[in-house]
Every structure is written in structure tokens, then in C-alpha cells.
Amino acid sequence: MKLLIVVHHRFDLWNVPAWFGQRLSQEFPHLQITQRDNYDGIEQDLRDAEILFTISLRPQQLAAAPNLRWIHTPTAAVHQLMFAELANSGVMVTNSREVHGPVVAEHVMALIFALAKKIPQAAVLQQKHVWGQEAIWNEGSRPREVAGATLGLIGLGSIGLRVAQMASVLGMRVIAVREHVEKGTPKGVEAVFPPAALDEMLKQSDYVVLAAPLIAATQGMMNAGRLAVMKSDAYLINVGRGPQVDEAALLEALVSRRIAGAALDVFQREPLPQDSPLWDVENLLITPHTASMTEKVWVRHYELFSDNLRRYLAGQPLRFVVDKEKGY
Are residues 194 and 116 in the same domain? Predict the structure, then answer.
């Protein structure tokens, strides 16, 4: 049985370290493991691969892999794999949502505190050697308490559930929108709304956090109309996917102070172009898609994947299987 590991990314952190395949070879000596850092001539390796560890695959590459049975991706998002040929095939797909979810949730909480306490403004004033106590109080939205504020979550997956737990411990009121309300109200969440009631959730929220998968229903979700529904002193935080926010509409809402501010970790185009007007928006906090970055990321990946690999070899159900019909 062959496992093919192939990941090529411009950012070195997302490339599989050499020790990953080596350790798998030691733990699973009867498995043929090939680890590559590029896709050149990949069809030859795909021909006899049963398991594929990758972040992307093209239809012609899938066609070159007649023995493929399982794809695991070291990402939470899987929209890049949901082309028709794969979605309609018998190939199982698993993702790494439990690797990234807890880490991204920590980032969300950091952004909430940064916005509430106006940390970015303080950092700018520090660079200018300005004692900006009066400016921080008088300019824009004032510093506020996190406890007692209402947090509106769009998505209750691995990220959303962790955010809800953390926020509720801090005394925040947590409400959420989820596709399947029949799943109930999880711990730390006061109320769950169906997608049709998203506007009602937005009207109540002091902080709106996007942590949903990118599917047709969430594409462009936060448009001008939805931003207009938000409270004028509310903040928008996106750690989901860039295309879920209409950036032109958000720019207008921020500049006109229609909402108090926003924090974005993901964008429609990445890297964010240098000439993007978003860079210069005073009440926008930008983090360059760093929410899931952690020094332990590949250790966490190994723990998850090796556990699933043991399950696969034993014929047991895998964890974090993607519903290909739903796209997540």
C-alpha cells in the first residue's frame, strides 16, 4: 500500500517537514511512503497511490490515480478539492479542522481584545512617541469591556465551538448561526439561529465572527445589506474565507463609520495587494492569514494523521471525514 505526501507552498511553514514522512515510515514500516515537495511528474507517483496527503489536486491528476481511496488535506478548507470528478467519486476526503480550530479560536479572542481595548491605535501612537490617552478615548469607538458584550458566531465548527467556550468563560453572551439548528445549542452558546435568521443575529451582536466554510451559501455573505444591519458600534472579524466578505462594501462601511471597525485575517486576494485601499483604513486591523500559525502545527498534524492512518489500516471509521455533498 502506498502513501504519497506532496505539498508545495510559497510559505515554508505550510510545507511538510522532512521528519514527517520519516517518522511515518518508522511507525508504519509495511507502508510504502513517498514524500515530495513539488508536483513535477506527479502522475507517475499517483498511479499506484492509495492514500494521498496534499493541499490540492487537479482533475487530470485524479484521473491518473486509479487506486486512490483516501485524500487527507492539512487544511481546514476543502473547497479547492471539491471539483465534480472528486466530489462524485468514491474517494474519501478528510481534513485537519481539529488541528487549526483551537489555534484560530485563540486568534479570534486576541482580535476581540485588540479591538475592544484599541491596541492597534496604542501601537501607532507608541511609534510616534505620543502619549495618546485622550486620543484613544475621544477618537472613534471608545475602549470597552468584553464581559457582557454579545458575540455573534457564523459557523459552529471546530473554530466556532472553541470561540464560544472561550468567550462564555469571559462573560460574553454568545449567539450563533448554524446550518443545522437541529443539532441543538452547544455549551457556551445562549441561542442558535438558522441561516434565514442571520440578520436577527447581526442586529444583536457587538462582535460578529465569520468562521464558516466557503460554500455557495456563504460566498459574499457579508455584503452591503448585511453590514447595514449590524449595530453602528459593532465589529466584524473574519477568520473564515476572504470571499465571504464583500471587501468594497466593508471598506465603505468602515470609512463612513457605519460599523465601528473590523479585523480581517483572510482576503479575496492573498497576499493582499500593496495598492489595496484596505491597508489605509484606520479602523481595520489586518493580520496576514496568520490565525492558524503555530510552532506546533506539524506535531499536531502528525498526531491527527497518524491516528487516522492507524484507523484506515485497521478498517475503522476515520475522523474528520468531509461531506462532499455539503463541501465541508
Answer: yes
pLDDT tens, residue by residue, 177-236: 998 899 999 999 999 999 999 999 999 999 999 999 999 999 999 999 999 999 999 999
Would residue 326 count as lying in a domain? no
C-alpha cell at 171: 462573560
**Model pTM?**
0.95
Residue carrying C-alpha cell 459593532: 234
Tell me the angle at which helices 97-116 and 158-169 cross, rounded to the nearest 10 degrees.
Answer: 40
Residue 323 covered by a domain: no
- CA dist 319 and 307 (Å) reads 9
**Total number of domains constituting the chain:** 2
Catalytic residue among 107, 241, 247, 301: 241
Q: The domain that contains 146 carries what CATH number?
A: 3.40.50.720
Out of 43, 85, 139, 270, pick the active-site residue: 270
Do 220 and 113 fall into the same domain?
yes
Which residue in 47, 69, 289, 300 is the catalytic one?
Answer: 289
CA distances from 24 to 12, 65, 169, 200 (A): 20, 22, 38, 49
**What is the tens place of the pLDDT at every residue in 258-316?**
999 999 999 999 999 999 999 999 999 999 999 999 999 999 999 999 999 999 999 99
C-alpha to C-alpha distances, 229 to 146, 226, 232, 259, nearest whole angstrom: 21, 5, 9, 10
